[in-house]
Design goal:
This protein has helices at residues 2-49, 59-78, 88-106, 128-145, 162-172, 175-205, 215-261, 277-327, and strands at 111-114, 157-160. It is an all-alpha fold.
């Protein structure tokens, strides 16, 4: 039995390492690529502005550069977060769910194992009914031992709901905790995109009708964006290793929990509705459904921010044309 449990623990650890970590890596890679692209066109814009003389600036030359910047933002944003598009991480999660279902289906539903001495010994804190049941177990064991000279060969079997117990410990009570790193990554992505959108607004607020362009403030904001991008890349690199560490710690904790509680399985002390087919199947569906709803909600949030950024950029293009017309 110990072999079956160790095999299951190893299988779940491999599931998380081989099927779930790639989902995180894919998301991190996508975000890193987005940061690199957005950083590149802001860095290019700053480089072009550095060539302008803030005191004797040619307004039309600036408006031409700004128009190029606005068009770049628009073109990139229109294809950045198309609503309903299937990203690699979303496909990876669906693959993870499929592998999870296959692993759980391979576990033995119920197995028979030897009742341990601890299952028959009464404890002070045991309820009266439990004490009576344990006394009956002791009596049953005594009866069986009457026909055996060697007491070490006397065994009483118990039925253990192995699949459902291990599914509870290694998935239902575990994966929501492992989901947190992925959630943190997407929230990081949403907050970063919102930062870029707000920074874009601040840059364009430096351009006002009938007033000189605040070129130095635009440069400062662009430099801030470039620094934020570099800092974000550094933070992003830490997420995968953090998720791996979470898996290692969780598996170690669950291994100790299973070692501690396993002997109670198949007894009235270890009896729980959670270790049933009805409960585990329902709980798995509930976890998957909740996560899929979260994915949809995050997708909509990213799409909305990107759309707002595009709408703002459209207005800025109109504003830039009006300023160009006034200068002509």
């Amino acid at each position: 039995m110990e072999h079956a449990i160790k095999t299951a623990i190893t299988a779940f650890e491999s599931l998380y390492s081989d099927k779930y970590i790639p989902v995180i890596n894919s998301r991190v890679s996508n975000i890193s690529e987005i940061i690199s692209t957005i950083n590149a066109f802001h860095a290019d814009y700053l480089l072009q502005l550095e060539k302008l003389d803030a005191l004797n600036m040619d307004s039309q030359q600036f408006l031409k550069l700004h128009k190029q910047y606005l068009n770049t933002v628009l073109e990139y944003n229109k294809k950045l977060y198309p609503l309903g598009a299937t990203v690699d991480s979303k496909s990876g999660i669906e693959l993870f769910y499929s592998e999870r279902d296959q692993l759980i289906a391979q576990l033995d539903r119920r197995v028979r194992d030897n009742e341990l001495t601890e299952n028959r010994i009464t404890q002070k804190d045991n309820a009266l009914l439990l004490k009576v049941i344990k006394k009956l177990k002791q009596f049953r064991f005594w009866i069986k031992s009457l026909f055996k000279k060697d007491k070490t060969t006397v065994f009483v079997k118990k039925r253990i709901p192995l699949r459902y117990y291990l599914t509870n410990e290694l998935y239902i009570n575990s994966f929501p905790e492992l989901w947190l790193p992925y959630k943190e990554i997407v929230i990081f992505e949403i907050e970063l995109l919102e930062y870029y959108r707000q920074s874009f607004t601040l840059i364009n607020n430096c351009i006002v009708f009938n007033q000189p362009v605040n070129l130095n403030e635009i440069k400062r904001l662009l430099a801030e964006i470039i620094q934020k991008s570099a800092d974000s890349q550094a933070i992003l690199k830490e997420f995968p290793e953090g998720a791996k560490q979470t898996i290692r710690e969780l598996i170690a904790t669950k291994t100790k929990t299973i070692d501690t509680h396993y002997y109670r399985l198949g007894t009235i002390e270890g009896k729980s509705i959670k270790n049933s087919q009805w409960y585990t199947e329902r709980a798995i569906k509930k976890i998957s459904s909740k996560q899929q709803k979260q994915l949809r909600s995050w997708e909509i949030s990213l799409f909305s921010i990107s759309e707002d950024w595009c709408s703002n950029a459209d207005l800025c293009v109109v504003k830039n044309k009006a300023l160009w017309a006034r200068q002509s």
